[in-house]
Amino acid sequence: MTRTTDRVALDDWYAVETSAELGAIPMRNRLLGQDIVSRRLADGAPLIREVLDDGSFGPPLPVAERYGCVWTSLGTPVRPIVDIPEAAETDRRFVPCGWVKMRASGLRIVENFLDMAHFPFVHTDILGAEPYTEVPQYQSEIRRDVDEVWATNCTFFQPRIAATEDKGDFVHLTYRVPSPFIVMLYRVCPTSPNRLDAIALFIQPIEEDLCRAQPVMYLVDSLSTQTALLRFEQVIFLQDRIIVENQRPLLLPLEPRAEIPTRADSSSIAYRRWLKEKGIRYGTTNRAA
Ligand SMILES: [Fe+2]
Description:
This protein has five helices and 15 strands. It has helices at residues 7-10, 106-114, 119-122, 226-245, 266-278; strands at 14-18, 27-31, 34-40, 46-51, 57-60, 63-66, 69-72, 93-96, 100-102, 139-143, 148-158, 169-179, 182-189, 192-207, 210-219. The strands form three sheets. Strands 8, 9, 10, 11, 12, 13, 14 and 15 form an eight-stranded antiparallel beta sheet that branches. Helix 2 (106-114) packs across helix 4 (226-245). The radius of gyration is 19 Å and the shape is globular. Residues 112, 118, 122-123, 240 line the site of fe (ii) ion.
């Protein structure tokens, strides 16, 4: 497969490396079907270039470092990298969870992240448990002023809502999709109920049906060890990988689900509608050329 021609996908920012892992030694990677190579220059600035067919390198691509990651774009980004105000709050724990490669469309991964109905069945006894399988009603919307998808007033019974907790309760969640391949979750913090933990998932589409994803967390939690926080998230994410890789088709259909959608699917319906309005084809069943 080769570099996509989908302008909507090309003209966006993607996290492609973890800042702490990038040094002087070039790292080969792939974005939207295009081989790229990244390294750090002597002054510390990252340099990312396309690897051309003859093995030579293209001109420097746009580059930025944000949220512990190195970001780039193969096109001309139409807007800045997502703003995560919580990242600037100095009392938060920053937990980059590492890249996980998945045989699935990145858009499928976003949709799975938005879906609460799978909690009791996929994250059994952690993020959900029978008989609490009902998704209480919540609101979904495309926010026109910021051009993002939000799902608000989400609640769900979770047996173990965070690394600090060992008993169950109803969690209060808000979901945000600021770009087609980035999804965020805000969770009322169990140890500090007037604040929200922020968890972002950065997805790097490698091919239409292959990607890497990295959860990055900004938590209000002075108790847990970094290892405990990392392990909690990794267990959940590896459970999700099994589900996402087994969905068929691997690419995301933009029509609402063939089955009669339930109200639990309202965030997915808003997300698909928003993607369709944007005209994105990469990673959808309306394949990019
Ligand atoms: Fe999940």
